[in-house]
């Protein structure tokens, strides 16, 4: 059977391409919706050497489309089960499965270099950005893909030949002003974000972060911000009573009565808005008991009554508090994080957001609706994944033919129309793919940041270094700044102490607008002789821009139209002093908007 498949493949692809397919080594990142389709396509179209990585386990909600998984596989590692199932399609294929996060340092640039190509089948920006950067650093072609409902896309990324994943800025995520979420909600989504990102994380997540709302703020809402800070502090105090018999009542009284009464006392806030109405626990308790309201069998797709939401609130607080305490017993710093597939968390967020909606006279929602809004869910369509996974294989053939320029981007657009678009040239201002890069071998427990600066960054270009000027240099690890002339506390620390690990790529930027340099940090091999604390493995490529162009860039950066590089650097500097994370929402101080929630 497999030899039949082989002879068909040879007939379809031709001997030359088939041989390339059969001898290439492919990395598949993600074994979810697109990943399952893709792994099946790979083994059936002649790819024989595949590494599949996925960090997750199988959830029951994956089974409708991730067809390599069945009911008996629920809770098992996606990567391992995908390997077992796909292997049955073509036993001649060698598949290695890894249940890991692709961002782990063991998957270094060196490790990426073993692959002929990498295929992304991911579901988040962060991991996509990381694989993009690693493939650029290792100079390995990447096929990027994604789907959302009926829409999808697949395209090739190759260093210096095509746009990379970060060449075009990505749309910023939806933001909500903190005051809308915390004081003046006007739509169901505001109540859902409050329940999920504020209340849930304050009660069961990590509420120990510094409170960014104590920063300096404009006059007019100082009173409101002070009230918000007080609310948060009081909630922290209530949290001490977690597990006590009246815990749900304490939380309820605070967020649906005390806080609402405090808001009502700020009269100017309600001059042009409908006033909220506090809820009374004892009244609701009586009415609910009289009506014999129960949480048993409450339907997902029907909107619950006020009494049902009340009962569900109490019930889910007890369930979550019990779990929280149990996890804390095992590990003192344990927290619960919101997950749309966690029934306790969904019951809580639905009830808590609906109660808040009652207070503010906003329409309430069914659990089903809350789940799709809280989880930002757009239904995944199996057919879209299958079509896109098919195109990924066509792109892979294009790479093996050596035909990257003529390998178009494919989009599945509205009305199920397929659109092909020529692959664009790299954006000359892209801070990710246009940077110069070099690999530096270091001893993470001996080499200091100063060594790196002196022996690589300030080393002249003639001697193979970056030839930068000390005062102008800043070093970033992702969005985290680790050094600049005003922020040099870590300069004598060992790289490990600075939080750098093998595989980390640090970005060296220059204030004078000169081109950035990426340094890929790798550890010396155990057997490797080295007299020095570091070894620059290749000379750093000279800048592509002339001095004149760099000066022009600096002039632009100092003007109104600061480019993205500059902006992200400024944001990183600012975030260093003024960001906090509540659940998965970042609260950033913003000059115009006071505080914004970034979901
Ligand atoms: N950093 C990462 N390293 C390895 N695998 C990752 C990483 N980030 C995401 N993934 C995997 O990528 C896959 C993406 O698949 P998909 O978009 O179908 O998501 P899903 O989690 O399976 O489905 P849903 O989100 O709809 O429940 C998931 O299996 C996920 O575990
Ligand atoms: Zn780019």
| Strand numbers in spatial order across the main sheet | 3-2-1-4-5-6-8-9
Determine and state the CATH class of the largest domain: Alpha Beta
Strand percentage: 15-25%
Find the CATH topology of the largest domain: Rossmann fold
Total beta strand runs: 18
Q: On the 0-100 scale, what is the average pLDDT? A: 85
The major beta sheet can be summarized as: 8 strands, mixed
Span between termini? 50 Å
| Approximate shape | globular
Roughly how much helix do the residues carry, as a percent range?
25-40%
Tally of individual helices: 18
Rg computed from alpha carbons, rounded to a whole number of angstroms? 27 Å
Low-confidence residue ranges: 208-220, 557-599
Name the ligand types.
Answer: adenosine-5'-triphosphate, zinc ion
**CATH-wise, what's the superfamily of the largest domain?**
NAD(P)-binding Rossmann-like Domain
Subcellular location: Nucleus
Domain Ubiquitin-activating enzyme SCCH: 328-371
GO cellular component, one term: SUMO activating enzyme complex
Subunit structure: Heterodimer.
Defining key terms:
599 residues, alpha/beta, Rossmann fold, Arc Repressor Mutant, subunit A, Structural Genomics Hypothetical 15.5 Kd Protein In mrcA-pckA Intergenic Region, Chain A, 3 domains, 18 helices, 18 strands, 40% helix, disordered C terminus, binds adenosine-5'-triphosphate, binds zinc ion
Q: Can you describe this structure?
A:
The structure is a single chain. This protein is an alpha/beta fold and 599 residues long. The chain folds into 3 domains: 212 residues, Rossmann fold (3-Layer(aba) Sandwich), CATH 3.40.50.720; 176 residues, Ubiquitin activating enzymes (Uba3). Chain: B, domain 2 (Arc Repressor Mutant, subunit A), CATH 1.10.10; 155 residues, Structural Genomics Hypothetical 15.5 Kd Protein In mrcA-pckA Intergenic Region, Chain A (Roll), CATH 3.10.290.20. It has an 8-stranded mixed beta sheet, sandwiched between helices. The protein has a 6-stranded mixed beta sheet with strand order 12-11-13-14-10-15, sandwiched between helices. The longest helix has 25 residues. It is globular, with a radius of gyration of 27 Å. The C terminus is likely disordered. The structure holds adenosine-5'-triphosphate and zinc ion. The site of adenosine-5'-triphosphate has 20 residues, from helix 3.
């Amino acid at each position: 059977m497999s030899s039949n498949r082989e002879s068909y493949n040879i007939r379809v692809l031709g001997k030359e391409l088939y041989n390339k397919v059969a001898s290439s080594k492919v990395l598949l990142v993600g074994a979810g919706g697109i990943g399952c389709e893709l792994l099946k396509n790979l083994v059936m179209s002649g790819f024989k050497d595949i590494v599949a990585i996925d960090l997750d386990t199988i959830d029951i909600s994956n089974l409708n489309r991730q067809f390599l998984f069945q009911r008996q596989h629920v809770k098992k590692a996606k990567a391992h089960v995908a390997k077992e199932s796909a292997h049955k399609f073509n036993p001649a294929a060698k598949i290695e499965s890894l249940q890991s996060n692709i961002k782990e340092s063991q998957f270094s640039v060196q490790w990426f270099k073993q692959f002929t190509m990498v295929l992304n089948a991911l579901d988040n920006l962060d991991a996509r950005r990381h694989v993009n950067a690693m493939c650029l650093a290792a100079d390995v072609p990447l096929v990027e893909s994604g789907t959302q409902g009926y829409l999808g896309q697949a395209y090739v990324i190759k260093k210096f030949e095509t746009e990379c994943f970060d060449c075009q800025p990505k749309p910023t995520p939806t933001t909500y002003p903190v005051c809308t979420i915390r004081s003046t909600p006007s739509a169901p989504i505001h109540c859902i974000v409050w329940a999920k990102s504020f209340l849930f994380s304050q009660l069961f997540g990590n509420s120990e972060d510094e409170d960014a709302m104590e920063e300096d703020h404009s006059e007019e809402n100082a009173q409101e911000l002070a009230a918000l800070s007080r609310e948060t502090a009081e909630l922290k105090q209530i949290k001490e009573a977690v597990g006590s018999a009246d815990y749900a009542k304490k939380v309820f009284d605070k967020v649906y009565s005390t806080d609402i009464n405090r808001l009502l006392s700020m009269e100017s806030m309600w001059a042009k808005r409908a006033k909220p109405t506090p809820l009374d626990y004892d009244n609701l308790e009586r009415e609910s008991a009289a009506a014999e309201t129960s949480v048993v069998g409450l339907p997902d797709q029907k909107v619950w009554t006020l009494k049902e939401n009340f009962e569900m609130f109490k019930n889910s607080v007890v369930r979550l508090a019990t779990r929280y305490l149990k996890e804390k017993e095992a590990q003192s710093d344990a927290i619960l994080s919101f997950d749309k597939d966690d029934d306790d968390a969904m019951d809580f967020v639905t009830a808590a957001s609906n109660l808040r909606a009652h207070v503010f006279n906003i329409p309430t929602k069914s659990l089903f609706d809350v789940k799709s809004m809280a989880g930002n869910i757009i239904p995944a369509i199996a057919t879209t994944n299958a079509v896109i996974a098919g195109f990924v294989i066509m792109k892979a053939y294009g790479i093996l033919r050596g035909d990257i320029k003529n390998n178009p981007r494919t989009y599945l657009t509205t009305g199920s129309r397929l659109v092909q678009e020529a692959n664009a040239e790299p954006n000359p201002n892209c801070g990710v793919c246009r940077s110069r890069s070099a690999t530096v071998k270091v001893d993470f427990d001996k080499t200091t940041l100063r060594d790196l600066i002196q022996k690589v960054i300030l080393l002249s270009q003639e001697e193979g270094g970056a030839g930068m000027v000390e005062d102008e240099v800043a070093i970033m690890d992702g969005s985290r700044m680790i050094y600049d002339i005003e922020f040099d506390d870590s300069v004598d620390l060992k790289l490990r102490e600075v939080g750098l690990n093998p595989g980390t790529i640090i970005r060296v930027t220059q204030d004078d607008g000169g081109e950035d340099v990426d340094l890929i940090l790798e550890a010396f091999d155990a057997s490797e002789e080295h007299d020095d604390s570091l070894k620059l493995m290749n000379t750093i490529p000279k800048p592509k821009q002339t001095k004149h162009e760099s000066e022009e860039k600096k002039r632009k950066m100092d003007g109104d139209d600061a480019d993205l590089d500059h902006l992200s650097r400024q944001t990183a500097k600012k975030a260093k002093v003024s960001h906090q994370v509540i659940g998965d929402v970042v609260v950033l101080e913003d000059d115009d908007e006071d505080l914004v929630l970034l979901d």
